[in-house]
Write a structure and sequence with these properties.
mainly alpha; 4 helices; 191 residues; 69% helix; two-stranded antiparallel sheet
Length: 191
């Protein structure tokens, strides 16, 4: 059976990805302004002869080429900026996607749903964090299953009136020790 087409979401966390793309674009603009200022500073003590449309101009180099530098910067910033923003959104997917999945698993855990596994794409970031959370989640789910099993066995011991009180007490103490071992598996920090 062919795999169904899955709609691609470009914005997982609009705020995170928007701020990331905006910051990358601002770095591009600041770089262009810095290059313009650096070029002006480096040529501040020189004169330039500029011939444009039968018009001859002589003057300080920064003043004569500033207009052309700004025009060249904006010709480069506009298309390159669009490409950079698109790349920033696509690359931020490797961050926003895992954060979204980690957040959904933590929300499920807060809603008392445990044992879920986090599956990330091959090129996603935070794989180590996802693996650690998955390991904790599945270990906790296993320990809770053990507690449920011991609780069921404890109910059987309590309900079994055919055995003497001493035998039931001994079995209850054994189950209590098993519960304590499970509880001691975790360290609780009371702050």
């Amino acid at each position: 059976m062919p795999q169904q087409y899955k709609r691609r979401h470009y914005f997982i966390d609009k705020r995170l990805q928007g701020v990331f793309a905006l910051r990358v674009y601002l770095v591009l603009i600041v770089s262009a302004v810095a290059i313009t200022l650096l070029m002006s500073a480096l040529t501040s003590d020189s004169f330039t002869l500029l011939y444009t449309d039968n018009d001859l101009q002589i003057g300080h180099t920064p003043l004569l080429i500033l207009k052309r530098l700004l025009l060249a910067n904006w010709i480069i910033i506009a298309p390159v900026g669009i490409i950079v923003v698109i790349l920033a959104i696509l690359l931020s997917h490797r961050i926003a996607g895992p954060i979204y999945k980690l957040d959904s698993i933590l929300t499920s855990m807060n809603n008392n749903i445990i044992g879920q596994t986090i599956h990330l794409r091959q090129k996603d970031n935070f794989k180590d964090t996802a693996n650690k959370l998955t390991t904790f989640n599945t270990t906790l789910a296993g320990k809770i299953e053990e507690i449920k099993s011991i609780s069921e066995r404890l109910d059987v011991v309590i309900d079994n009136t055919n055995q003497s009180a001493d035998v039931r007490l001994e079995q209850t103490q054994q189950l209590s020790r098993e519960l304590k071992l499970i509880a001691d598996f975790y360290t609780v920090i009371n702050e």
